[in-house]
Specification:
This protein is α/β, with parallel strands linked by helices and about 350 residues long. The chain has twelve helices and eight strands. Helix 9 runs parallel beside helix 10. This is Ferrochelatase.
């Protein structure tokens, strides 16, 4: 009996904490037209002549600081998720891990899944963005063009309100003494505002992102708000106890606000001394969490007058997160019953054709 293939895809990481490896990674990542969506020649000049030469030394040093004996934290945690999910699902499934950029590549990983009758693709990004989920869906379809036999495929686009995911984040937070914090911050990866408006020209007007509706479906900003609300609900926080910001801005173009560094300065000015930070754009700890937040922003917050800024560990190998992934995949769950011709309907996930 043919197995159901499961393809987990994360963003990527350099193969080693060296300048050549980091340069290869940054080049492949930043030259993706869904990431920097400028005209071809302008993108080439910006990336090859300006961005990489300016950032390569610093970025390499950051990777060297977080690198572990087994590899980069993102790769270590992603492999653990793959192995735990395989154990959870059992022999009727073949779980594979790919990275959108560098290794293991989507192309090579799809080769391992040749022969499966059905395939489920899960991006390891809870919120949809063209620069992440859209890009990996496009790359998967590009690679599949050469296949003689293409299996039936379910593309998950996003899962911002997944209850098990929210509870897993909440449990990570409860591992700390929550009573010692006077503010809880949800920091999401930033995007250029232009990307948001390209997807939905009506976004960011009034209270458009205060709830998920058919009009803002797959809007990255709205889904970030939704994820934060889900974790807030799981923790029982009041509205005045938390706020949102966006990190990792690149360049001078207007990105989603408030910018993390400015927001931290304002929190310190308002008298907040001890802040606990969630990073729910990421399901595995990586350079953006354990260095950008836990090192750089923690240091900046103290300069601004705060006392401590602590990071909530990412989902990594949390059992509830593995259960959440499993529920997106099992054919007896409501997701695949609908997609693979079974009876029960689903409103949570849809076939995606980016």
């Amino acid at each position: 009996m043919s197995k159901i293939g499961v393809l987990l895809v994360n963003l990527g990481t350099p193969d080693a904490p060296t300048k050549p490896a980091v340069k290869r990674y940054l080049k492949e990542f930043l030259l993706d037209p869904r990431v920097i969506d400028y005209p071809f020649y302008l993108r080439q000049i910006l990336v090859r002549c300006l961005i990489i030469p300016k950032r390569i030394n610093e970025t390499t040093s950051f990777y060297q600081r977080i690198w572990e004996k087994e590899g980069s934290p993102l790769m270590i945690h992603s492999k653990a998720q793959k192995e735990l999910l395989q154990e959870e699902l059992g022999e009727g499934y073949q779980v594979e891990l790919a990275m959108r950029y560098q290794n293991p590549s989507i192309k090579d990983t799809l080769e391992k899944l040749k022969g499966v009758k059905e395939m489920v693709v899960i991006p390891l990004f809870p919120q949809y963005a063209s620069a992440t989920t859209g890009s990996l869906h496009q790359e998967i379809m590009r690679c599949l063009k050469s296949f003689e036999t293409i299996p039936k495929i379910l593309f998950h686009s996003s899962y911002p309100e997944n209850e098990l995911m929210a509870e897993a984040f909440a449990e990570r937070a409860r591992a700390k003494d929550l009573s010692k914090y006077d503010h809880f911050l949800f920091s999401f990866h930033g995007l250029p505002v232009r990307h948001i408006l390209k997807a939905n020209s009506q976004c960011m007007k009034g209270d458009c992102c205060e709830s998920l509706t058919p009009k803002n479906k797959l809007c990255y900003r709205a889904e970030c708000f939704a994820t934060a609300r889900s974790i807030v609900k799981a923790l029982g926080l009041e509205k005045n106890q938390y706020s949102l910001c966006f990190q990792s801005r690149l360049g001078k173009e207007k990105w989603l606000e408030p910018y993390a560094i400015d927001h931290l300065k304002n929190l310190a000015k308002s008298g907040k001394k001890r802040v606990l930070v969630f990073c729910p754009s990421f399901v595995a700890d990586c350079i953006e969490t354990i260095h950008e937040i836990a090192v750089e922003y923690a240091k900046d917050f103290k300069v601004f007058g705060g006392e401590s800024l602590d990071l909530v560990e990412s989902l990594n190998d949390h059992p509830l997160w593995i259960q959440a992934l499993s529920q997106m995949i099992r054919p007896d769950s409501m997701n695949l019953k609908n997609h693979f011709g079974l009876k029960k309907e689903t409103k949570s996930f849809a076939l995606s054709h980016q």
